[in-house]
């Protein structure tokens, strides 16, 4: 049975190419319109308030993430959107080399809107070129590379010249456009429809995930209003160290043992965030204090970003609207940060009052994390089990399924189908591999679920994890 599609050289190259496109494009988004230090440095050099442009860019980006699923339905359309949006971004950055004009704000908003749509559309390539069990690594690779590139752009803009930083942005965008032109769009199986056949509906877990992301990232918006301004005098240090703990956390999470329980990491991340704001209220504004506070805060953000990126990656296989699911999920991150930043900017009373508000948000997160984990934990456990199971040789997989999960309760054909189902195969894919009709597969799956008194694949996987001897009816 073929389980690791990415071992195919062509597909593996497509996977790396898609990560490269994302990293180059996303680095511009982070460095320029999205609270980017390049734009801040440019505004400072010409004595211009960048906050209206930043707000418009983030709001437009969030809108693009949400609306992309309505317009982009295929990989071919996704690639076209990438090419158009990158070209608009290049034109926007070029415009900022000219004297300030009224065109700056609308052009920045337009390029940010299209960038939001492109990030959502990248879900097509994320799903097609990376198997579900490897998506946590692909997400980490893209986020790490883009943040490293962003750091180089920020350092250049702050320590050399904002125009040099913008030149690097143009270079990254040009590379992204060339790479996007070569993204393959053919030969990829379509996603399955949610709530169909296997009776798996992602609406509820996606809603809980959205709430969780929006609440936790509210503090990232507050951070821009609290921590960053307080250490503005350490411009050289913040220009290069700001994203370093974030990248380090991503690297650690990427390389966790496959048996590690990532639920524990969520609680650890909340604790880091709480300690960061607590330290901010009692420490001075020295470089040592900044290193401690920023390490805790950005490390926590790295944990959470990779968590929900990988979960969204798993949900893509259960939705016919790939860009819609991916974009809506990621929009929670942007919406939470935008709300936190806006509220923090409006809140009076000084930075210590804002820090206390952030601590209150941490307490709320701690209160809602257990019920949220009840819904998301099954996805995490499923993910951990699958990444362990698919690493086994095919023969060992068969023996494991027969002796551990299906002790004599299934026919030989049912065992074959069950083995493919728990590996994340759709009905159509199972039918193709076993050379039977899709209706035959559905009938066998119905019998399998009936024997174990479950309603869908997630429940079957949860039963496999919870007990070594699932009961037969």
Structure report:
Helices cover about 75% and strands about 0% of the residues. The longest helix is centred in the last third of the chain and has 39 residues, at about 350-390. Helix 4 (about 75-95) packs antiparallel against helix 5 (about 105-130) and helix 10 crosses helix 12 (about 285-315). It has helices at about 10-30, 35-45, 50-70, 75-95, 105-130, 135-160, 160-180, 205-230, 235-240, 245-255, 260-280, 285-315, 320-345, 350-390, 395-405, 410-420, 425-435, 440-450, 455-465. The chain starts with 8 loop residues before the first helix and ends in a 7-residue tail after the last helix. With about 475 residues, it is mostly helical. The protein has 2 domains: about 10-190 and about 210-390, MFS general substrate transporter like domains (Growth Hormone, Chain: A); about 390-465, Winged helix-like DNA-binding domain superfamily/Winged helix DNA-binding domain (Arc Repressor Mutant, subunit A), CATH 1.10.10.10. The chain contains 19 helices and no strands. Residues about 1-10, about 190-200, about 380-390, about 405 and about 465-473 have low confidence and may be disordered. The radius of gyration is 23 Å and the shape is globular.
> How many domain units?
2
Q: Determine the structural class based on helices, strands and strand pairing.
A: mainly alpha
**Radius of gyration from the CA trace?**
23 Å
CATH domain class of the largest domain? Mainly Alpha
- How many beta-strand runs? 0
């Amino acid at each position: 049975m073929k389980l690791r599609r990415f071992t195919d050289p062509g597909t593996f190259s497509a996977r790396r190419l898609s990560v490269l496109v994302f990293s180059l494009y996303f680095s511009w988004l982070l460095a320029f319109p999205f609270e980017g230090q390049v734009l801040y440095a440019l505004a400072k050099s010409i004595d211009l308030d960048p906050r209206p442009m930043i707000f418009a860019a983030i709001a437009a980006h969030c809108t693009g993430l949400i609306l992309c699923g309505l317009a982009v339905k295929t990989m071919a359309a996704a690639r076209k959107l990438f090419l158009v949006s990158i070209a608009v971004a290049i034109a926007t950055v070029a415009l900022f080399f000219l004297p300030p004009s009224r065109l700056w704000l609308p052009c920045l908003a337009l390029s940010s809107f299209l960038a939001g749509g492109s990030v959502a559309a990248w879900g097509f390539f994320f799903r097609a070129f990376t198997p579900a069990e490897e998506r946590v690594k692909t997400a980490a690779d893209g986020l790490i590379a883009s943040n490293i590139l962003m750091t180089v752009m920020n350092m250049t803009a702050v320590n050399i010249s904002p125009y040099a930083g913008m030149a690097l942005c143009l270079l990254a965008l040009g590379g992204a456009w060339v790479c996007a032109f070569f993204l393959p769009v053919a030969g990829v199986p379509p996603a399955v429809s949610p709530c169909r056949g296997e009776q798996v509906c992602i609406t509820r877990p996606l809603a809980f995930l959205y709430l969780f992301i929006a609440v936790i990232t509210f503090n990232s918006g507050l951070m821009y209003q609290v921590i960053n301004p307080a250490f503005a005098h350490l411009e050289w240090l913040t220009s290069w160290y700001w994203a370093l703990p974030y990248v380090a956390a991503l690297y650690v999470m990427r390389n966790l043992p496959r048996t590690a329980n990532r639920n524990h990491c969520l609680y650890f991340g909340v604790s880091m965030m709480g300690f960061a704001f607590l330290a901010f209220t009692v420490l001075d504004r020295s470089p040592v204090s900044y290193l401690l506070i920023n390490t805790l805060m950005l490390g926590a953000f790295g944990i959470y970003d990779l968590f929900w990126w990988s979960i969204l990656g798993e949900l893509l296989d259960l939705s016919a609207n790939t860009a819609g699911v991916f974009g809506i999920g990621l929009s929670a991150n942007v919406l939470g940060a935008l709300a936190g930043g806006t509220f923090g900017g409006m809140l009076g009373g000084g930075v210590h009052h804002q820090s206390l508000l952030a601590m209150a948000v941490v307490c709320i997160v701690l209160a809602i994390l257990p019920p949220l984990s009840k819904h998301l934990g099954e996805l995490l456990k499923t993910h951990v089990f699958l990444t362990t199971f698919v690493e086994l040789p095919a023969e060992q997989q068969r023996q494991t399924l027969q002796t551990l999960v299906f002790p004599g309760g299934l026919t030989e054909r049912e065992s074959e189908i069950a083995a493919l189902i728990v590996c994340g195969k759709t009905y159509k894919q199972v039918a193709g591999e076993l050379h039977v009709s899709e209706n035959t597969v559905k009938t066998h799956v119905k019998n399998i679920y009936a024997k174990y008194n479950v309603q869908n694949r997630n429940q079957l996987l949860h039963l496999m994890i919870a007990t070594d001897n699932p009961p037969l009816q």
